[in-house]
Amino acid sequence: MAKLTIGTETGAVLPASDTGRFRGSAGLSSVVLPLGLAFFVLAAWQLYVTIFQVPSVILPSPISIARYIVDRYDILLMHAVPTTLESAVGFLLAVLLGVAIAVLITYSDMAREALYPNLIFFQLIPKIALAPLFIIWLGVGSQSRIAFSIFIAFFPMVIATTAGFLSVDRGILRLCRSLTATEWQIFTSVRFPTALPHIFSGMKIAITLAIIGVIIGEFITAQAGLGYLIIFATARADTEVSMAAIVVLCICGLLLYGLVALAEMVANRFYSADSR
């Protein structure tokens, strides 16, 4: 029987079939447990609303929210498209800006001393207080929402990417330079692959902040989008519509987050295959 050693404190040796079964059960539990908890919360929510006869204007039931999503999916989809597109654009631009600043900070001591303290200072400013200024500067169109989305999403990209670039072992860098490798070769072959886990960690944070930035912009001024729909329905005390829009917003956010996770998996496989 094939044997496979796994990292345990006792140095135990498990059959390969048992190891595969263990990994399969772990993967299954990572799906079953969150779904089970979500189902429990929704069931408790539905029972609470039904038993205590809570008015829908205060808290609609999950069934009524789901019914509204199914019946009015066209309206929700119409508002979801601009929100998702603007979030994606803001996220991509924030990633490019964050990586560019991280490269500058990594390779220039002067830039690091000049930029890093100011980045920390701007991060301490309550972002929502600046949202109206972006509307004044850039107008009421999508450009102001995208710019605000970039503004609040690029900071974690800068911090995470810089940490990744600086985490490379200095001994490896000295070895590469002793072999007459150029800085571009060192960056593409050593720094960037080493920083990938940090970069994708920053991207996972940035995608959520990009969505928040767009929603805040839609709260202030917009004629379409899920943020506009939420604030419009709330003003009319239509809680069911607001909750339905929030559910759709969560789904859009999960889809964008899933694309980032998929890109991480593809990048890891590519560099793993390339290293072999």
Automatic annotation (TrEMBL):
UniProt KW keywords: Cell membrane, Membrane, Transmembrane, Transmembrane helix, Transport
Record domain ABC transmembrane type-1: where: 80-260
Gene3D superfamilies associated with the record: MetI-like
Presence of keyword Cell membrane: yes
TM regions (residue ranges): 31-51, 88-107, 119-140, 146-168, 205-231, 243-267
SUPFAM superfamilies, sorted: MetI-like
Domain of life, per lineage: Bacteria
A Pfam match: BPD_transp_1
Family annotation (CDD domains): TM_PBP2
Keyword Repeat on entry: no
Protein location: Cell membrane
Membrane-related topology note: Multi-pass membrane protein
Similarity comment: Belongs to the binding-protein-dependent transport system permease family.
Full protein name: NitT/TauT family transport system permease protein
Organism the protein comes from: Bosea robiniae
